[in-house]
Amino acid sequence: MKKYEANTIQEACQLASKDNNCSITDLEYKIIQHPKNGFLGLFAKKAIIQVTNVKKPKEKDAKKKPLKEVQEQAQTKIQEDISAPKKPTEDINIEVNTKDNEVLNSFFNEKQEKKIEPTIDAQTVESNLKKLFEVSCLDIDTVEVDIQDNTAYIFIDGNDSALLIGKEGYRYNALSYLLYNWLNSKYKLNVKLEIAEFLSTQKEMVINLIQPVIEHVNQTGWGKTKPLDGILVLIALEHLRETFPNKYVAIKTTPDGKKYVLINEFNRR
Q1: 214 in the same domain as 192
Q2: Is 104 inside any structural domain?
């Protein structure tokens, strides 16, 4: 039994057939090692076969077969040998360590576990907000939080509650933005902030302001509000979407940066 080494299985078979002065189809061999390219030339392996027997065909049979047919049979045999499942040879000892398999399986199972989103309760949010206002210079005596339907409803009141609103609601918008970034990014909660009935008052004012727009939409099928600031445009958007659930209602921006709400048919945006 002789071993032959080459870059491919086919080349190794050709060496063996030449050395034994026979056709590749007359070789009986087993593949000791399949070729590997390696990584950047490292760890590359050549193909190794071991010839176990050489069949000597009868001269008459050899003459009957044309050369092309012999070559095709040889190529087919090599492809079958290469495609066959790799089996460990007698020269290779494979030991299976069950403990190592358990460690590997547990590692991959942990990676596949679904991530659990962190949760927070209303009391924790309320406690954190109270601590925030205690270290501030503002006189805020009421902080109430309720969490329903994935939304945190926050009510704040006190002697300095107007300072949290600011001129035209700019501070209210900033505080709402900060609370939303905290609760939504970490706990996937939406935020509705009410400061000393500011939101209720603003909502009532906006509804009265956009009532002519609603009447115009009912008559013509479309309409838009006047430019609105900050929280007012969001209140208008929410109310108009409730009023016209089957229409396209969205916030648009004018060339000078002001925002308004557009109401239209879905196919006429």
Answers
A1: no
A2: no
Distance separating alpha carbons of residues 262 and 269, to the nearest angstrom: 9
pLDDT value at residue 109: 57
The answer to whether residues 145 and 204 belong to one domain is no
Q: In terms of domains, do 125 and 78 share one?
A: no
Three-state SS sequence of the chain? CEEEEECCHHHHHHHHHHHHCCCHHHEEEEEEECCECCECCECCECEEEEEEEECCCCHHHHHHCCHHHHHHHHHHHHHHHHHCCCCCCCCCCCCCCHHHHHHHHHHHHHHHCCCCCCCCCHHHHHHHHHHHHHCCCCCCCEEEEEEECCEEEEEEECCCHHHHHCHHHHHHHHHHHHHHHHHHHHHCCEEEEEECCHHHHHHHHHHHHCHHHHHHHHHHCCEECCCECCHHHHHHHHHHHHHCCCCEEEEEECCCCCEEEEEECCCCC
- Whether residue 241 contacts residue 249, with contact meaning beta carbons closer than 8 Å, is answered with yes
**Higher per-residue confidence, 4 vs 99:** 4
140: domain range?
120-196
Q: Is the confidence at residue 107, as pLDDT, over 60?
A: no
How far is the CA of 151 from the CAs of 73, 187, 194, in angstroms? 74, 10, 13
Mean pLDDT across the stretch 26-41?
A: 76
In a domain, 103, yes or no: no
Q: How many domains does the chain have?
A: 3
Q: Are residues 242 and 228 in the same domain?
A: yes
| Mean pLDDT value of segment 244-262 | 91
Cα gap 216→171, rounded to integer Å = 33
End position of a domain, from candidates 65, 83, 101: 83
